[in-house]
């Protein structure tokens, strides 16, 4: 795989790991005393060496969620923080059975030192404090990361300018996802730019409106997605402008959601 590095400011970088079929963004955030690497991608590049070339500070590693394309490089680091609610997801996405479905990749050994964290923790890097926000939906433990001084939010796979996949094994109900978007909306006065893990970057906060509208329509039963085929089977997909909510019919209860 290849990589590209984009400087967001003097102390923040977006690292893109990509090939002809996939692309994922990792973010390196530097404070005065330490730095934070948000996600480790597929683990197909020498990420530890790359990060060491960008910052000389000690580096903490945090996963936005435990899917294999966000945790693949965890084993290149001594210790990784992962949301506690994604423990089963981490077990599944480091299993030989699942990884064998991607023979084109050689995954490093999984990290053995894991700090299971709550989605409401804060992380201090020295004059740069980051706030974790729980956003269950795509996975039970998915989180967003607010950088209030820069007025940025990093959302993982919760709201890219594309599909949110709620049809994956272990994904939550649409109602739970709608609650997560409503939670992010509460933080909206505190950020101006949204940095997701895939597709277009950066996004403006009104991306939340599109996902909230679609999720609410599904939950209230006022709209239903079209049937589509995905890599993990048949699902429903409700389009709202440039985004879609992809979900399973048995993961809604047609009750009004926030």
TrEMBL record:
Keywords for this protein: Hydrolase
One Pfam family hit: Lactamase_B
All residue ranges annotated as the Metallo-beta-lactamase domain in the record: 23-198
Top-level lineage group: Bacteria
GO molecular function: hydrolase activity
InterPro entries, alphabetized: Metallo-B-lactamas (IPR001279), NDM-1-like (IPR050855), RibonucZ/Hydroxyglut_hydro (IPR036866)
SMART domains for this protein: Lactamase_B (SM00849)
UniProt protein name: Glyoxylase-like metal-dependent hydrolase (Beta-lactamase superfamily II)
Organismal lineage: Bacteria, Bacillati, Bacillota, Clostridia, Eubacteriales
